[in-house]
Design goal:
single chain, alpha/beta, 8-stranded mixed sheet, 8 strands, elongated, disordered N terminus
């Protein structure tokens, strides 16, 4: 299995288009912040701080970025405003690298874990089921066999949507009657996946946040049942967040990381929002790698998050 696929022009075009609104938002604000200024001074940094906060980078991450730029300005004595974008770009890239959001293999899985089990969590409406369908498509395109488990048994729409995606992609979906025990669905899914020597099993879960204790108990139960079939499962807990909700995505991340051990993030709907800065803030604040980003409705519009390509698209080549 190749370590990296070539980042194709089509994927780059999709990324550029998906981040267009965020890019326009940030650059128009930066242009206004430095208008009439030749040097990066305290006033410019104050303006830049406001630009980042209002672009949903988040207050704590913004302060960290501003602090790093201040250090560079103090060290270099004179920094022109024409250099500001370049410095900002470098500091954001460094931040993403530090937080492990550095670009992963293209929809690959460890070869020593089979079936590789992914438990997907997130509130209703963030694009969780759609992300599962797109993930299944990408894995299948890689020649991997995939099973899906419809463990969100509290919403008929969620089960039906997953079944539709399964038919569309051409992968089996394990389901039970409405109101069935989600852990039982996970058990059946992994049993079927293991019996059929499948490579990947993806389990959808309910997206309720009204009671964190109940959520925690339910997810823990699902995990424990999985481990009876596949030791070490789930190998990945993927939290799906809607990038267009900005600061609300931070709150969701806080709730779910408190309820279960999240190991990776997928941030969706970046194509329809100017709030793409949320990717930077969430990666920094939660120290969880952003693994996938959603950039449209098409089956191929879910991309592996690549730090370099993301920053290139955000700031231009």
């Amino acid at each position: 299995m190749a370590l990296f696929d070539i980042f194709s022009k089509k994927k780059k075009d999709t990324l550029d288009k998906g981040l267009e609104k965020t890019k326009e938002n940030i650059f128009s604000k930066i242009s206004r912040a430095v208008a009439g200024k030749s040097k990066v001074d305290d006033d410019v940094l104050d303006e830049l701080e406001e630009v980042l906060v209002t672009s949903d980078v988040g207050v704590d991450t913004t302060l960290k970025i501003i602090g790093r730029i201040e250090e560079r300005v103090a060290r270099d004595k004179y920094v022109g405003t024409d250099e500001l974008t370049c410095i900002l770009r470098e500091e954001i890239a460094n931040l993403l690298m530090e937080n492990n959001s550095a670009g992963l293999e293209e929809f690959s899985i460890p070869e020593d874990k089979k079936p590789y089990t992914i438990m997907v969590v997130g509130v209703n409406g963030v694009g969780k089921t759609t992300t599962i369908g797109k993930l299944a498509h990408q894995f299948k395109e890689k020649g991997l066999s995939v099973y899906l488990g419809a463990a969100d048994t509290f919403r008929a729409a969620a089960v039906e949507q997953l079944v539709v995606w399964g038919e569309r992609v051409g992968v089996p979906v394990v389901r039970q009657k409405m109101g069935a025990d989600p852990a039982s669905v996970a058990f059946d899914t992994l049993s079927s996946a293991k019996a059929n020597n499948a490579d990947v099993a993806i389990i959808d879960t309910a997206g309720r946040l009204h009671n964190k204790i109940n959520l925690m108990n339910e997810l823990t139960k699902i995990k424990n049942v999985m481990q009876k079939i596949v030791p070490g499962a789930p190998h990945e807990v993927l939290l799906v967040l809607d990038g267009s909700t900005g600061q609300n995505a931070f709150e969701q991340a806080k709730q779910f990381t408190a309820a279960t051990e999240v190991t990776a993030l997928a941030i969706t709907k970046l194509d329809g929002t100017a709030k793409g800065g949320v990717v930077i803030g969430i990666s920094d604040q939660f120290k969880i790698p952003v693994k996938y980003i959603g950039l449209g409705e098409g089956m191929d519009d879910l991309q592996v998050f690549r730090r370099k390509e993301f920053v290139d698209s955000l700031f231009g080549e």
